[in-house]
Design goal:
This is Nucleotide exchange factor GrpE. It contains 5 helices and 6 strands; from the N terminus they run αααβαβββββα. It is α+β, with helices and mostly antiparallel strands. The chain starts with 16 loop residues before the first helix and ends with a helix.
Length: 181
């Protein structure tokens, strides 16, 4: 048969020792509920710290991927420029292999949601919010204000612009004369 607390007699405690003992017991002993709460708080704090660390590392990795996307886009532009001279030199297979290698580098970036956009030929109004203008070119080949050259592409992360493109704008010759006046 189980024994309850009521079965025990109260012991006498020396004068003054009762308060000291109560304080010592309270300091030394946590109730199971309090102990569980302390453990949960520690666990929650550790979990938040780990989450913050992972978030910082993920942001740094995505930033590195964005930089890589810019460099791959530049490489693709250079490969495009080199395709003609390579074909003219009779080394068509080298140009083709370089283009394939460029596409293979882009595939993992696209799988992570990192894409680039080359705005060459787009009107100023269409790109004004997503590019920084590095300079202007004026000439008869331009009938309106359009992107004449891309210095750096526009970079998107899951469809959101995360890095503005750097462009050189083109405009009709008459626009340059009006701006100078």
């Amino acid at each position: 048969m189980p024994v309850g607390w009521d079965e025990f007699d109260t012991r006498q405690v020396p004068d003054g020792a009762e308060e000291a003992e109560a304080a010592a017991e309270a300091a030394d002993r946590l109730s199971p509920g309090r102990e569980t709460a302390v453990l949960l708080q520690r666990y929650w704090s550790d979990l938040q710290d780990e989450g913050n660390r992972v978030q910082k590392e993920t942001a740094a990795a995505r930033q590195a991927l964005i930089e890589l996307a810019v460099h791959v886009a530049r490489l693709e532009a250079l490969l495009g420029e080199a395709a003609g001279p390579l074909d003219g030199a009779g080394d068509r297979s080298l140009g083709r292999r370089l283009r394939v290698a460029g596409k293979q580098v882009l595939e993992p970036l696209h799988a992570m949601g990192i894409t680039t956009r080359d705005p060459v030929g787009e009107p100023y109004d269409a790109v004004a919010d997503v590019v920084d203008i590095a300079g202007w070119r004026y000439g008869p080949e331009f009938t309106a204000e359009v992107v004449a050259e891309t210095v750096e592409p526009i970079v998107l992360d899951r469809g959101t612009v995360v890095r503005l493109g750097q462009v050189i704008m083109g405009a009709p010759s008459s626009a340059g004369a009006e701006d100078d006046a």
